[in-house]
Amino acid sequence: MTNTTLIALVLMAASGVALALQAPLNAMLGRGIGSPLAAATVSFGVGFLVLLLLTLIIGDGASLTRLGTVPIWLLIGGTLGALYVFSALWSVPVLGVLTVTTMLILGQMVAALLLDYFGAFGLAAQELTAKRLLAAALVAGGVVLSRI
C-alpha cells in the first residue's frame, strides 16, 4: 500500500467520524436557535469561511477567479451538500445518529453503484456484480437492525 493510499484511507475515516459528529452537533444548534434551516445556514456559512481561509492561506485564491469558466450546473454540488446538512440535522432527533449515518451510507452506495455502472461523469464503467449488490444489501440490513 502506498503512502498516498494510506493517507486517503485515514482521511476518509476521519471524514466519516466528522460526518457522524456533524449531524448531532447541527441538530443541537437547530434546537438552540429554534430552526433547523437556520442551523443548516449557519453550518454552511462557517464551513464556507473555513474553506475560504484555507484556500487563501494555501495560495489557491486565484483559482476562485476562474469560477466563471466552468459550466453553471457544476455548482449543484453545493446544493447537494446543503441538502445533506439540513436532512441530517433534522433527521438525527427523529432517527438517531446510527440510523441517519447508515441511511446516508446506503444512499451513497446505491448512487455509487449506478454511477459506476453507467460510467457517469467520465468514470470507467464497472460491472453490477452480485458482490457489489450484496454489499449494498448488507448495509440495507444494517438500517433495519439499527431500528430494532
TrEMBL record:
Alphabetized UniProt keyword annotations: Membrane, Signal, Transmembrane, Transmembrane helix
Pfam entry (one): DMT_YdcZ
InterPro entries given in the database record: YdcZ (IPR006750)
The residue range of the signal peptide is 1-20
For this protein, the parts annotated as crossing the membrane are 36-58, 70-92, 104-125
The record's PANTHER family line, in alphabetical order, gives: INNER MEMBRANE PROTEIN YDCZ (PTHR34821)
Question: What protein am I looking at?
Answer: DMT family transporter
- Organism of origin is Roseovarius pelagicus
The beginning of the lineage is: Bacteria, Pseudomonadati, Pseudomonadota, Alphaproteobacteria, Rhodobacterales
